[in-house]
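Below is how a single chain appears once it has passed through the pipeline. First comes the sequence as given, then the structure the pipeline wrote out for it. We keep one example in the README because the format questions we get most often are answered faster by looking than by reading.
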Amino acid sequence: MKCAEAIDKTSLADVIGGESFYPPMYGYVPKGFAGNHGDYREEGDQAAEDAGNMISYDPEDAMALLAAAGYDESNPLHITYKYSNSGIGADVAAVLQQMWTAIGVEVDFEAVESGVYYDLLDAGDFEIARYGLNASDSSIEFLDIWTSGMQITAAVDDPTYDQRVENAKEITDPSEFINACHEAESYLYYENVYVNPLFQNISAYLVQEGLHGYEADGGSTFYGYCYYD
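Resulting structure:
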């Protein structure tokens, strides 16, 4: 949590392109999926312990946690941040370095060629790094990603979390299913805080004027009912 609380996700999103394209995320399921009373992500954020943000930006508490762990100016925490040298990787790295440096953490960079970046992460060859994930049709798919059996090298290896996700999959009542997903996600966020969601990547679509009936659901778009004026 020490480094997580030092990240101002809103400022990070502003630097890399704005919240319209990179909305800050305070959970593992992005916007666009159905909850019990609207959008799943908005529903989860509103119910979070920190007034809408599961883990809020609190650099002072981050510094207190560092001090409690024995890190200070005479003995700073030193980390190496590995990032892909394509896309927004360098920009994200620079912003994170600034935020972590502000709480007394020393950060080194290691830029990696994009073609092998995820291979290294999947092999566990990193100290701190940013990973991009995607799923399609249901909130449970984004939660299932972090079960130990779905990861090539498990960053999250938590039998309790695995069981929570498995239990959610067996629920047939839609409302109870969504509640179980929120509970599993909250557990993952607080008990495995070293896996910290940063932002969602919004795709932009060009739609020809007069086209109607397409449906966007999470990461998928359905065109089966499309028609023109």
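The beta strands are 78-84, 106-112, 128-129, 211-212, 215-217, 220-222, 227-228.

See the next section for the split statistics.
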